[in-house]
Specification:
The mean pLDDT is 93. The protein is 33% helix and 22% strand. The chain has 441 residues and is α/β, with parallel strands linked by helices. Strands 2-1-3-4-5-6 form a six-stranded parallel β-sheet, with helices on both faces. A five-stranded mixed β-barrel has the order 15-16-17-19-18. A three-stranded parallel β-sheet has the order 7-10-11, with helices on both faces. The N and C termini lie far apart (56 Å). Bound molecules: S-adenosyl-L-homocysteine, iron/sulfur cluster and FE3-S4 cluster. The site of iron/sulfur cluster has 9 residues, from helix 6.
Length: 441
């Protein structure tokens, strides 16, 4: 049997795409190799959001090329956002690549990889709507958790971002199709779903009037599916987060008390240059409205430092926003110019040294606030979905709270079970606890 190995870079959308890539390869009769060293087909599902994933992929590809030299039968396939961004010159840049495909052309994988007889590079790019999950085979990593893609592409024009160029215009999946998939997953034993889209709050706007609806309604429809105990979604864009979605979060039991709400910058001036289309004040108002409606809401975010023209004052406003919102966690990024984006052509780029200095200062604040937030949980009992043994100490179990914090705890439970855990200690990223023993009636 020929064996494949998929290496995945980037976001949850890419992780989900990899499940489909694996599903397609298995349908072609290939088996999964645990290690790349034993695989005949090496697949890389790439990311190009910043320079770092590009560099990381280049290093991995170097290893794959060395393997191909030693064993010329090895097939190298490169998919994902980097492949799409480089589609004009991918085979020129990397002549060792046999097959290339973008995130929108996964359905073609069978045609390219099934045929055999390599030697001529082949690939396909662009957007094929059959890429939507429901219509492709899928190899899910966990039996009790699943991603559900609700849209592809993005209609925003954030000036720093490469995603619209590589994932195309936004196309929403029809609500009936999404709910049917959620029902299939529930019947299959899935308890937690994460709805995926680049901007989940604009989902549905492109649908025909007969099925047009909005994201809050979709949350309620998924909540009504028997067996689904937790619903998450990522990412919402603050500009489109409206009252009906807040109400649905507050009222639908399965929707978790967590929102990942990317702020990017705390300076309205920089937000404008980023074309985020909201101000600092509007964002903070949204946070207040959400917190008023959803008690105990966890908020996480994405922050970029060193956007072109960012002054010390602008940066300080980002730091202040972190203190004011009190995020439970934040992903912090150094601005990375991406070829072809509006911001990459701006003349007032910030020197690397200053970017690095700012991100270090920001990380300190983010960690302090996150530690304070997590410490507030100590003494409480939280519902945890068990995921498996702890990564650091196999005598403990690992799971996540509804607020999406990882907990390592003493207990006896199987992956996929929901258990109550008493929180005993906190770091800036994780909680420690012990399974609460149910009190006999
Ligand atoms: N569509 C999602 C995710 C976008 S990519 C959303 O809008 O929320 C994830 C994060 O990467 C972004 O939120 C942003 O913080 C960061 N990012 C995107 N492009 C970047 C760039 N050129 N440099 C640094 N960070 C970037
Ligand atoms: Fe990129 Fe902005 Fe679209 Fe997110 S909303 S994918 S940051 S363009
Ligand atoms: Fe995701 Fe990276 Fe593409 S963040 S959408 S895999 S560029």
């Amino acid at each position: 049997m020929r064996r494949y190995h998929v290496t995945t870079f980037g976001c949850q959308m890419n992780a989900h795409d990899s499940e489909r890539i694996k599903g397609m390869l298995e349908e072609l009769g290939l088996g999964e190799a645990v290690e790349p060293e034993t695989a005949d087909v090496l697949v890389f599902n790439t990311c190009t959001i910043r320079e770092k994933p590009d560099t990381k992929f280049a290093a991995y590809l170097g290893h794959a090329i060395a393997r191909k030299r030693a064993n010329p039968e090895t097939v190298i396939a490169v998919g994902g956002c980097y492949a799409e961004a480089q589609r004009e010159r991918l085979f020129e840049l990397h002549p060792e690549v046999d097959v290339a495909f973008g995130p929108g052309s996964i359905p073609h994988l069978g045609e390219w990889l099934g045929a055999g007889g390599f030697g001529v590079p082949r690939g396909s790019f662009g957007i094929d709507e059959r890429t939507f999950a429901g219509e492709l085979p899928m190899h899910r990593e966990r039996s009790f958790q699943a991603w559900v893609q609700i849209s592809m592409g993005c209609n925003s024009k954030c000036s720093y971002c490469i995603v619209p160029a590589v994932r195309g215009r936004e196309v929403s999946r029809r609500p009936g199709e999404i709910v049917a998939e959620v029902m299939r997953l529930a019947a299959d034993g899935v308890r937690e779903i994460t709805l995926l889209g680049q901007n989940v709050n604009s989902w549905g706007r492109d649908l025909l009037p007969d099925v047009r609806t909005e994201f809050g309604e979709l949350l309620r429809a998924c909540d009504a599916v028997e067996g689904i105990e937790r619903i998450r979604f990522t990412s919402p864009h603050p500009k489109d987060f409206r009252a009906p979605v807040i109400a649905a979060m507050a009222e639908a039991d399965a929707v978790c008390e967590h929102a990942h709400l990317p702020l990017q910058s705390g300076s309205s001036r920089i937000l404008k240059a980023m074309r985020r289309t909201y101000t600092r004040e509007r964002y903070l108002r949204l946070v207040d409205e959400m917190r008023a409606a959803i008690p105990d809401l966890a908020l996480t975010t994405d922050l970029i430092v060193g956007f072109p023209g960012e002054t010390e004052d602008d940066f300080h406003e980002t730091v202040e926003a972190v203190e004011e919102v009190r995020y439970d966690a934040a992903f912090t990024f150094v601005y990375s110019p991406r070829a072809g984006t509006e911001a990459a052509a701006m003349t007032d780029q910030i020197p690397d040294e200053l970017k690095r200095e700012r991100i270090e200062r920001l990380i300190d604040v983010v960690q302090r606030v996150a530690h304070e937030r997590n410490t507030e949980r100590v003494g409480r009992v939280e519902e945890v979905l068990v995921e498996g043994p702890s990564r650091t100490d196999p005598s403990l179990l690992r799971g996540r709270t509804r607020r999406n914090t990882t907990v390592n705890f003493n207990g006896v439970a199987q992956p996929g079970e929901l258990v109550d855990v008493r929180i005993d200690a906190a770091t800036s990223t994780t909680l420690r606890g012990a399974q609460a023993v149910p009190v006999a009636a």
